[in-house]
Amino acid sequence: MPHAIRTGTPPRTPTAEEVEVIALVPLLEPFFRKVRVREQMPPALREAMEQHGLTARHGAVLPHLLAGVPLTVGQIAGRLHVSLPTASELVGALSRAGIVERSEDPANRRRVLVSLTADYRPLLETFVALRGEPLLRALDGLTPEERAGFVAGLAAWVREVQG
After folding, report:
1. SS3 letters for the chain?
2. Is 38 a residue whose pLDDT tops 80?
3. pTM for the full model?
C-alpha cells in the first residue's frame, strides 16, 4: 500500500519496525557522497563528466547501456522513470561528451539507438563493478526469495521517490 503524502494531510507515524528501516537509510549516505563517487571513478571518465558538466543524473543512464544492447531514448526514459524530453537531454549531453553514441535503428529509421562508445565501455565496466561490489556482496548473502524481496522493495521505493 503506497504511503503518499496527501496535501493537507500530515504524514502517518511509522511503526517501530518501520523506524528501524528508516534509520538504516542515512547509513548509506556516505556511499553516495559526490566525493566518494568521484574518487572511485576512472580518471578519464571523471574528466569527461567534469569537463562537460555532467551530473549523477547523466551517470544514471550509463549502467543501463552496459548490457551491450543499444537502447532507444524511450527505453532509457522508462528505465529512469523520467520524461522523454529529459532522457533526450541526458543522452544529448552524454553524446556531446563522447561517452555515448546515437545511431539510427535499422528496424525503424525514426528511432534513435543509444550505446556506449568503445572508449568509455571498459571504464564504465570498471566503475560499475567497483561501485556495485558492496551491493553484490550483500545480495550474495541472501536467499533467492530474500533477494527478490529486496529488489522489489528497492524498486517500489524508487517509484515512490520519483513520484
Report:
1. CCCCCCCCCCCCCCCHHHHHHHHHHHHHHHHHCHHHHHHHCCHHHHHHHHHCCCCHHHHCCHHHHCCCCCEEHHHHHHHHCCCHHHHHHHHHHHHHCCCEEEEEECCEEEEEEEEECCCCHHHHHHHHHHHHHHHHHHHHCCCHHHHHHHHHHHHHHHHHHHC
2. yes
3. 0.77
